[in-house]
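PROTEIN DESIGN WORKSHEET
SECTION A - STRUCTURE
LENGTH: 608
TOKENS:
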């Protein structure tokens, strides 16, 4: 059984007629076989082939229309087929009748036109015809049968089907493309990488990696002419979902087919490891490339530099930067942006500014990504005046700020509790035609919550929803935290229920906030019940949960209960953190209670 059978294709009505290729005439139907039709059938004596052909060639459509009204448009097409008229002439007539009379030609006639063009090697016109066909999302169920009956040469069929699958992909009709791929296997029509590779690319883009694997296996089974692009696309898809072992298997397949992994192949896998945070694996692959004499390019180094920066290892990123230059490769704007962003994120603003100056000295023009990174650096240092001036610089350089620019500034002003400036920036972004997103609202909502103005925060959350934006996990966590701090756990629990109703899965932070809120109100029973609910919903208590529980019971004077929780935490293999030790020291030891934990007491003393 075909491995793609499990894919659920949309059900479509199967008609023996080709709907009009003109979208404006989609609902127009003029079936020539209608019992009320006034058409008559031409016989070979009354049909003047040369005269009709001349009318078509000179595009005298008004005269031709008069003739067609007296007979049957499909009958004229049949005579043109039988007279072996030029394929271009037949195509002109076919397209004109479709436009003029609507759905009058059946699948067999459509396929005969395609086959004539294929035999004449007029591939551009086949592509155009199939492109129009695919744009209207027509199913291919009857085309395969008609082609198999009409065509004498399998290679002609393959060309048409290959282009049909490609047309579906080009128009984003991936399920119909997969249906065509499946039927091609049923009818023994061999496709090529020209259609299959774009199909794989679109599947990867849509995140349908399991289908990518199925299509790839079927391509290998049918011995479709795979190439380096095929392997690289499949490897890319597997790396995107962290299936690195399977990606390695595809590399071995690649070698078995006589292809050597290229710099693109290595870049794809290195990028996958970087995005997964497995920098040691990415670095090892770089060394492997060099050992196999595959020269890393600018993209290789840019991927690694960005990966190390996001992994907060700027030192390693700078070493890769130096290695890049020693290889004679020139860093570009992307390289500098990654480093500047990494430095800013690690509170090394001065170095970041120095790099920007170096960029300018090399003739590289900073873009909005560069400025966004620097604005973030200034905001982290609470240098909001300088960050705001950087926004003006963006405009002075002929660049346009984006939503990230404004979100970074709005978040910084909100955290600094300067809500007037935050709202002013939000108004400015609207005036510039930049739509606030959920992150924009979360920053402002968070700012009002810090000020204890939950009413204004809730008002903003309603405004967000009225603008078509759905509150996310961050939004709910901010509001729940604010309500708990105000001692309004009843309202907070209603928000928790609302989260699950809208399909959001509360996080550890959500539950830990609720537990802390209950303890703040002195309701330890509700706090324990919340922990039970949390674990019932698949969230195991983490180190933060235990810290909150231990501190809560300590503050209620239930030190023995807190001690039991400490032992339970250690038995589950959770490692105490700085907060744990602070709680033990401040809430237990300083009150004269020595935790009863063999082998851990000395660690508490040393750490304190």
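SECTION B - SEQUENCE
RESIDUE ASSIGNMENT:
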């Amino acid at each position: 059984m075909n491995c793609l059978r499990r894919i659920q294709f949309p059900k479509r009505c199967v008609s023996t007629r080709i709907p009009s290729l003109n979208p404006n005439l989609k609902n127009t139907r003029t079936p020539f076989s209608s019992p009320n039709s006034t058409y008559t059938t031409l016989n070979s004596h009354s049909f003047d082939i040369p005269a009709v052909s001349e009318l078509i060639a000179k595009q005298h459509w008004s005269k031709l229309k008069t003739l067609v009204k007296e007979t049957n448009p499909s009958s004229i097409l049949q005579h043109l087929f039988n007279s072996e008229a030029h394929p271009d002439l037949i195509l002109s007539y076919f397209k004109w009748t479709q436009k003029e009379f609507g759905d009058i030609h059946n699948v067999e006639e459509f396929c005969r036109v395609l086959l004539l063009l294929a035999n004449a090697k007029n591939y551009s016109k086949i592509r155009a015809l199939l492109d129009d066909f695919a744009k209207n999302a027509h199913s291919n169920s009857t085309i395969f049968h008609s082609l198999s009956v009409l065509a004498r040469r399998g290679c002609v069929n393959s060309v048409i089907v290959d282009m049909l699958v490609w047309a579906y992909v080009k128009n984003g009709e991936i399920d119909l493309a997969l249906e065509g791929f499946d039927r091609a296997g049923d009818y023994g029509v061999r496709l090529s990488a020209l259609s299959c590779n774009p199909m794989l690319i679109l599947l990867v883009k849509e995140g349908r990696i399991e289908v990518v694997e199925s299509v790839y296996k079927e391509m290998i089974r049918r011995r479709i002419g795979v190439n380096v692009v095929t392997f690289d696309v499949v490897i890319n898809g597997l790396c995107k979902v962290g299936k690195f072992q399977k990606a390695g298997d595809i590399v071995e397949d690649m070698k078995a087919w006589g292809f050597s992994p290229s710099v693109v192949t290595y870049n794809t896998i290195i990028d996958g490891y970087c995005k997964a945070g497995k920098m040691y694996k990415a670095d090892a692959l770089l060394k492997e490339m060099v050992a196999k004499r595959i020269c890393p390019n600018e993209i290789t180094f840019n991927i690694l530099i960005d990966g190390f920066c996001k992994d907060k290892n700027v030192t390693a990123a700078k070493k890769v930067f130096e290695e890049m230059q020693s290889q004679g490769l020139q860093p570009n704007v992307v390289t500098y942006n990654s480093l500047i962003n990494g430095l800013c994120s690690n509170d090394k603003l001065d170095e970041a500014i120095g790099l920007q100056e170096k960029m300018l000295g090399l003739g590289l023009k900073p873009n909005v990504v560069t400025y966004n990174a620097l604005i973030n650096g200034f905001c982290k240092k609470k240098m909001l005046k300088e960050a705001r001036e950087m926004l003006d610089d963006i405009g002075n350089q002929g660049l346009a700020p984006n939503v990230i620019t404004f979100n970074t500034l709005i978040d910084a002003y909100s955290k600094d509790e300067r809500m007037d400036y935050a709202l002013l920036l939000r108004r400015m972004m609207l005036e510039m035609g930049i739509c606030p997103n959920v992150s924009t609202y979360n920053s402002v909502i968070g700012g009002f919550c810090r000020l204890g103005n939950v009413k204004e925060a809730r008002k903003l959350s309603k405004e967000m929803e009225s603008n078509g934006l759905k509150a996310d996990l961050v939004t709910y966590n901010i509001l729940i935290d604010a309500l708990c701090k105000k001692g309004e756990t009843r309202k907070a629990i209603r928000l928790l229920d609302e989260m699950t109703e809208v399909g959001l899965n509360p996080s550890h932070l959500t539950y830990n906030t609720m537990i802390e809120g209950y303890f703040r109100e002195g309701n330890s029973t509700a706090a324990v019940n919340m922990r039970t609910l949390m674990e019932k919903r698949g969230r195991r208590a983490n180190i933060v949960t235990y810290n909150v529980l231990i501190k809560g019971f300590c503050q209620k004077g239930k030190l023995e209960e807190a001690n039991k929780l400490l032992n339970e935490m250690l038995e589950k293999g959770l490692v105490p953190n700085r907060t744990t030790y602070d709680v033990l020291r401040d809430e237990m030891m300083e009150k004269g209670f020595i935790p009863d934990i063999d082998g851990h007491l000395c660690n508490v003393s040393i750490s304190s």
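SECTION C - NOTES
The two ends are 67 Å apart (CA to CA).
Residues 507 and 539 are 8 Å apart (CA to CA).
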